[in-house]
Every structure is written in structure tokens, then in C-alpha cells.
């Protein structure tokens, strides 16, 4: 059963990534998302980072918070912000609203054990 859950989570994460990439118009931006994904997934699996309720990544404490990892998370968040701004402009809404909608999608697709924030900003671990 665990193998099926992991496969489903990987598929769901892939679907989210493809949606995010479809929204990104720059080939360079798409490539950066793809390059970072395996490292970010490992950091999520370790519980070092989680997905905020605004559609960005955040460290949950000091564990894993090396300079290299901080730069990786900052780069991901910067690129997500770029994509959110592109989407917001296309649908005539605010960037924060786009981020919140993405956060809901991310939460729905997150792997069991990954950390997420609820609407009030409280961290919780996704259950199987």
C-alpha cells in the first residue's frame, strides 16, 4: 500500500509541476523548476521545509538550513512569484490570491508526511 501511495503522490506532484510549468512562459524558468525539484522534494521528505498557505516554501526550523539550501528555497520562491504574477495579470486578480489558490492545490497534491500550513498559518503534516 505504501508503494501505491508514494506512486500516487509522485504522480500528483508531477501534475502540479506540469501545471506550474504550463503557466511559466520562459523556457529558462521551466528548466530551473525541473532542476530544483528533486532537491526540494528531498528537503520536504526530511521535514526541513514545508508549503505555506501562500504558495511558497518555508523552512520549519533550523534543520537543513544551510546557505545552499536557503538559496535553493529563495530561488524557488522567486520563480514561483514570477509565475504567480504572470497568472494574476492574465486573469486580472492579485498575486496573493493566485498564491493562495496554488497553496490549496499543493496541499491537495502533497505527499503524506509533507508539512503544510492551514489558512491560519499553523503547520500540519499531511496524513496518508
Question: Mind sketching the topology for me?
Answer:
Blueprint: H1 2-23, H2 27-46, E1 49-51, E2 57-59, H3 67-91, H4 95-109, E3 115-117, E4 123-125
Parallel strand pairs: 1-3
Antiparallel strand pairs: 1-2, 3-4
Element pattern in H and E: HHEEHHEE
Q: Which whole number gives the mean pLDDT?
A: 87
Largest sheet: 4 strands, mixed
Helicity level, as a percent range? Answer: 55-70%
Cα shape: globular
Number of alpha- plus pi-helical segments: 4
Poorly predicted spans: none
- Indicate the proportion of strand residues: 5-15%
Outline the structure in words.
The structure is a single chain. The protein is of the alpha+beta class and 128 residues long. The chain has one domain (2-125). Helix content is 64%, strand content 9%. The protein contains four helices and four strands, in the order ααββααββ. It has helices at residues 2-23, 27-46, 67-91, 95-109, and strands at 49-51, 57-59, 115-117, 123-125. It has a four-stranded mixed β-sheet. The protein starts with a helix and ends with a strand. The model has no long low-confidence stretch (mean pLDDT 87).
List the main descriptive attributes of the protein structure presented here.
single chain, 128 residues, four-stranded mixed β-sheet, alpha+beta, globular
How would you concisely characterize the structure shown here?
This protein is of the alpha+beta class and 128 residues long. Helices cover 64% and strands 9% of the residues.
